[in-house]
Amino acid sequence: MTSTMDDDQVHHEVVKFGINVKPLSVLANNAHQQVPSPVLVHIQFLHQLHYEFAQYTDPWSETIMTSGGYLVSRDGSCQLYLTELKSFNLSFSLLSPELSKLGVAQDMHQEIVERIVECAKNVQADRNVALVPIQVEVLRSATIWQCPQCSWELLIQREAALNQRMSRMKRFLVSPATAIRSGDEGGENNTTSSCSVCLEEFVAGALAVRTPCSHDFHEECLATWIKKKPSCPICRFLMPI
């Protein structure tokens, strides 16, 4: 399962992680086979990250209240020869890209590879051993908390972005004699006399706004929409700042 975090939830993050590397059962060749073969190591990766959200109950309290979370889980695998795996430099160059694909932070790669190399060195492999499975579990927990100062700064930033976007809109009075002109998604102009956000008719003499993509709305309706999605409600044109 993959998830994304909303911008207003990411302020301060404390991450803890644990690594579990262990060899699984060894798959052997035919016991009567006399010719030794290279020992192959199959590494199974599991990367789990549990996010938990928290925030102060009020600006003057040190009490933190958690508000749930979610789990991100990714898995993968790769194969290396045991002789390669016993060399840290070679193993790191081969395993680090695999860990990056799973979303493992770069500063964790060295410790993980060191654990894998140590595990490989402890494997008792003779000429009857064909495959050595190794399981690597990377378990992380991240507490993401929101403080009053961050909330206030984020609010100021959003208000500033909203004001800049709204300043680009053309304001005009609705004419009683002519309908409001508004383009459709295909670029052709259609005649409409209602706001596409609230679906209410424009009143003659009322103030309306026209977006850079030539669509007309009530100013308050458009501002409310842009607070949530900075794009045109009709054609999804991204409003410039």
TrEMBL record:
One of its GO terms (cellular component) is nucleus. InterPro entries: RING_finger_E3_ligase, Znf_RING, Znf_RING/FYVE/PHD. GO terms for molecular function: ubiquitin protein ligase activity; zinc ion binding. SUPFAM superfamilies: RING/U-box. Residues 195-236 form the RING-type domain. Gene3D superfamilies: Zinc/RING finger domain, C3HC4 (zinc finger). PROSITE patterns: ZF_RING_2. GO terms for biological process: ubiquitin-dependent protein catabolic process. Signal peptide: none annotated. PANTHER family: RING ZINC FINGER-CONTAINING PROTEIN (PTHR45931:SF3), SI:CH211-59O9.10 (PTHR45931). This is 43kDa postsynaptic protein. It comes from Parasponia andersonii (Sponia andersonii). The lineage of its organism: Eukaryota, Viridiplantae, Streptophyta, Embryophyta, Tracheophyta.
